[in-house]
C-alpha cells in the first residue's frame, strides 16, 4: 500500500483536515466512509492491513473456516435425511485457500483504493500524537478538528512458563494452517475458542479445551449448557476449572501441565492454540502527549465516546467493553451524530447483541435473567423450544430454545437463543429492545410458515398464556356472549 494513496507526491508534509481517523478496522472504516459522504475532509491512517482484525484475522476468516467444517460434518451425518454418511477427505491446503479467497473477495470493500475513490486520504504509517491537536504518520504531520482512535485490539498471550519456547497458534495465525492437526489443545473457552475447537473437531482433529473458570462463563448457564452438551457429543473435551502451569515441547509434540481440583495432570497434543482474551492497542500512540487517559482495559471515554481531550474520540475494541465489529460500527455512528450534528447520541449498551457462531449458535441481547432479577426484582421468563417448531423438525435442528425476560408490565428486558440460526433470530429482539417495545408488539406480526422465526412469536405469546384461565377475562367473554 503506498504511503499516501490520493497524493503520493504531496507538495506539503503538513495536512489540515476535519477528521483524522487512526485505524482502518470496522469502526474506523465505517466512520471514514460516513464522514466523507457528508462532505468532510477525512484522513485515514493505518499502519498494517486495511480491514483490521475483522477482515484479516477475525470474523471473516473464522466464518469461512466454520463453513468448511459445517459441510464436512454434514457429509458424515447425512443418514437421517436418507443420504448415506460419508467420511470427508479434508484437503487442508484447500481449506486455507478457501479462507484466503474469502478474505480476498471481501477485501475490495476495505481497500485503500476504494476509500481514496470515496475521497478519503489514506496514509500507510504508524500514527502518534505529538500534542493535543496534532498527529504524525510517516512523513506527514496531521492537524485535525477532530480525531477518532479506532486501533482495535490484539490477542493476550498468557505468561505461562515455557510458552516462549513452544510454537503456538493465536486467532491471528491459525488461519494460515495448511495441515491436519492431530490433537489441538485450546487454552480459552469463550466464543472464539469454542468456535475454533468445534471447527477443528469437525475437520478430524482431537480437541481439548482448557478453561480456568466456567466454559462460556459470560453467557446464561441455561443456554450455554445446550451448546456445551452438543460440543461434548461431537467429541470436544472441555476441561473446566483447571489452571495451566507449564507448557513444553516442539511442533507436533506439545505437553501442557495443568492443576486440577484432583491434583496435577499432563495433557499431550500436537498443537497449541491460545485464545485467552484480547488487549486494547494503545502502545506507541503518544496518548500522554494528547492528554488522553488509558488503563489496562483501554482508552477511557465518556458516554459519548469522547476522551479527556475534547478533540479526540475513541471507538471499538480500543476502549474495552464489547469486542465486536458491530459494536465498533455502532460506535462510529454515535461519534458521527455527535460531531457532525451535535446530537447527544450514546452507544446501544444493552441493545447490543452478541453471537457465538458454533452449531448450535448462541445469541443474546439485553439483560440476562440474573441481571434482570437483580435490577427489577419480579420478572417474567418466557421460553419456547425448537422441537415445537415444524421447520426445525424438517431440518432436524431441534436442539435449543429461546428465552425471553420481561418485566411484570411486559417491558422486554433481554432475550437469549441457543439453536439453529440464533444469530439471525436475535435481531428482532435487538430491534424491540432498542425501540422500547413491549412484549405485546412481538405478537402482532405475521410469521411466514414454516420458518424458525415462529419461535420468537410463540415465546412472546407465553406472556399471555394465563389469560384464558383468568376469571376476569372469562366474565368478559360470558358477558359479550349474552349480547349475542
From TrEMBL:
The keyword Protease does not apply. Keywords: FAD, Flavoprotein, NAD, Nucleotide-binding, Oxidoreductase. InterPro entries: FAD/NAD-bd_sf, FAD/NAD-binding_dom, FAD/NAD-linked_Rdtase_dimer_sf, Pyr_nuc-diS_OxRdtase, Pyr_nucl-diS_OxRdtase_dimer. Residues 18-332 form the FAD/NAD(P)-binding domain. NAD(+) binds at residues 188-195, 211, 277. Its cofactor is FAD. FAD binds at residues 63, 151-153, 317. SUPFAM superfamilies: FAD/NAD(P)-binding domain (SSF51905), FAD/NAD-linked reductases, dimerisation (C-terminal) domain (SSF55424). Signal peptide: none annotated. Binds 1 FAD per subunit. Residues 353-459 form the Pyridine nucleotide-disulphide oxidoreductase dimerisation domain. GO terms for molecular function: flavin adenine dinucleotide binding; NAD(P)H dehydrogenase (quinone) activity. Pfam families: Pyr_redox_2, Pyr_redox_dim. Belongs to the class-I pyridine nucleotide-disulfide oxidoreductase family. This is FAD-dependent pyridine nucleotide-disulfide oxidoreductase.
